[in-house]
Amino acid sequence: MGNDRNAGRKRKFDTETISKILKSYQKGHSVSELAREYGVSRQTMSFYVNEVACKMEVRSTDGVSSVVRGLAYWKKINESFAIPVTEMEKCPMRMDYMRNKEVFTSILVNFKDEQIYIKNFTEHPLKCAFGVKRNPTWEDFNYFLEDRCVPRSRDHMKIILKDYGLDFYDPISIIEKTGGRMAEDDFYLKLYRLEVEHENI
Fold first, then answer.
1. Regarding beta strands 102-110 and 93-99, do their DSSP bridges make them parallel or antiparallel, or are they unpaired?
2. Which of 162, 183, 185 lies closest to 174, judged by CA?
3. Which of 4, 16, 59, 156 shows a CA-CA span of 20 to 30 A to 75?
4. 8 A C-beta contact, residue 189 and residue 93
5. Cα separation of 69 and 87, whole Å?
């Protein structure tokens, strides 16, 4: 008897096919539509969309930064933020404030509108990126960044920047080199950048 529901063993797709599936999903095709198109069960297609395909869209550039390609996975990893998707799409960077691989605060950054959104995963203010503040301002964010890298007033700053491969003082660029690690504590920052392909219409 045939298996009309395509149940049973999961069909394996190659990398090229998985990329096509994810692009179709990002364009608005539902999991059910894709399952019918590729001849698999809805559960199998959901597995590829939510696990395999999405993981392919994250590329680590170094130990500090990762590039996330496509809005589908960007929305998935930031779903804990209580903000509209339209606002999330305006935030091309996320920072995780961490210690020993545990995230204490996640920060979504909207550079254009100079706005940030935070999600604390602890109630302990000493472990939160902004302490007791639950709605930090853009000024608070800039202060936090400078607090996690070499001070702007440090002697021989030009030499220090040259060692980092930088032409000017920029806290985010410095943190991308150092991970925001400081001698005073064990916290550090991991950065994610959103990269979206723009298609010609």
1. antiparallel
2. 162
3. 16
4. no
5. 18
- Enumerate the β-bridge partners of residue 191: 65, 95
Rounded to a whole number of angstroms, the distance between the first and last alpha carbons of the chain is 46
* DSSP-derived 3-state class of residue 114: coil
Cβ–Cβ < 8 Å for 132, 161: no
Question: Could you read off the pLDDT of 71-94 as tens digits, one per residue?
Answer: 777 888 898 898 998 999 899 999
pLDDT at residue 142 in the model: 96
Amino acid code (one letter) for 96: D
Q: Which positions ≥6 away from 121 have C-beta within 8 Å?
A: 103, 104, 105, 106
Every domain of the chain and the residues it spans? 15-56, 65-195
DSSP H or E stretch at residue 94? strand 93-99
Model confidence, pTM:
0.70
pLDDT digit string, tens, across residues 143-169: 999 999 988 888 999 999 999 899 999
Angle between helices 138-147 and 171-178 (to 10 degrees): 40
